[in-house]
Amino acid sequence: MTPRWRTVAGIALLAAGAGSGPATAQSSDGPYARIALFHPRDGHTTDFEAGYLRHLAFHQQAKDTWAWYGWNVTFGERQRWFVYATFGHSAASFDNPVDPTGDERDNVLNVTPHVDQWSNALYEYLPALSRGTGVPQPSPRLELTTVDLKPGGDRAFEAAMRNSQPALATETLWFRMVAGGPAFRYVRLRPQPSLAAVLESRRQPSLPDTVYELMSHATVDILTLRPTMSLGLGAAVR
CA 37, CA 33: separation in Å to the nearest integer? Predict the structure, then answer.
C-alpha cells in the first residue's frame, strides 16, 4: 500500500483490502509489521466506512495478497478510531505493494475526504519477548498496549521482558517501533476471544515491576475486529 506523506514524519494513508482465505495464507517471510490509525472526521463515520469499503473493492480487484487487519478502538483514549495493520513481512516486501499508483488514486478519491487525523508506523517483531508468531490470530478482541520509554531505557526494558517471557500463558506479541512515532516505543498485542477474556487477563500482572521506572507513558486500548474491513482473514474470523 502506498503511503501519502503529510507534514508529520511517518504519517501515511490507508492500505487495506477485502479478500478470502485463511490468515495462514499470508506468507510470514519477515519480522516487520505496519500498524496505522485513522480518525474519521466528526459526522463522517458512515461516509468513511462506505469509502473504505470501496477502497477494499479496489484491492480485491488488484489481487492484493497481503493480509490486512481492521479494528475499531472500542475502549481507550482513541475511541472510534480505526486501526489497520499487516504483519509478517520482510523489509523488501514493503517496496513491492500492490499497484501503488492506483492505490494512491483510489485512496484520495474514497478515503481521505473523510479523515482528519492519521498515523502510520513500522515495527519489528521481538520473538524472544513474545509467545506466538509475528502474525496475531484474528480474534474478536485485541488488547493493544503502547509503551513509551525514557531515553536509553530500551535495553533494560527488553531484558526484563525477556526474563518474564516464560511466564506468558497466552498469545502475547511484542513489537519495537522502527519509524513513525516517538523513539523508544513498544507495542504489545494480546488477541482475546471476548471482552470477558480481556478483563480476566488483567487479573495477572501486566508488566514486571522493574520496568515502570523506565517508562515515560503507557496506554491500553481494547480493539474490536472488523472482519468486513479486513483482508485475507477468511474463515478464521468469527
Answer: 14
